[in-house]
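--- STAGE predict ---
source: upstream dedup step, 1 unique chain passed
mode: sequence only
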Amino acid sequence: MMLRKKLTILFLIVALICPMVFSAGSVQAASKVRLNKTKITLVVGQKKKLKVKGTKKKVKWSSNKKSVVSVSKKGVIKAKKKGKAVITARVGKKKLKCKVTVKKKKSALSKTSTSKKSQTENTTNEAVAENSETAGSKALVVYFSATGNTKSVAGYIADAANADTFEIIPKEPYSDDDLDWTNEESRVSREHDNTDLRNVELTST
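--- STAGE serialize ---
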């Protein structure tokens, strides 16, 4: 009789503990469901794959601004234009969010000017030395600057060499769209492919 009572009490204890253990395990498993990225920065045209970790359930993806960032059914996001958007991954009743910032891609001329700036500064001392040898003649720094970077470098060289500056200005200025080298129909792309289009009319010579 006593043995039966002990077994009954033991059974009740096990019956009470098991649901608590399984419940705790379920909560812990649910808390591990997360995105591999919660904040990301891209440039226009760039792609990135988002993943939901901690679950094998079906994920439904969405973007609150599809014109800025789109997302595929597999979680691949693509930056379309400058701006900010939020990508949402829905797993059952749980929503996971990733904030995406899209920056504009630098133009080709801007990149070229920036990359050449350090080279120009390294040769400034040589230019100054040559200028001192020909002190009897006035030097002239001729430049073209679509974004302003080359203009600042030209001014730096002119000051160091005690020279005058002359800016080449096209009659039809270059817009940001004209300088978009990633667009095959942009002005710089067409001028690159067709040498006849490089004969640009200037406002002064």
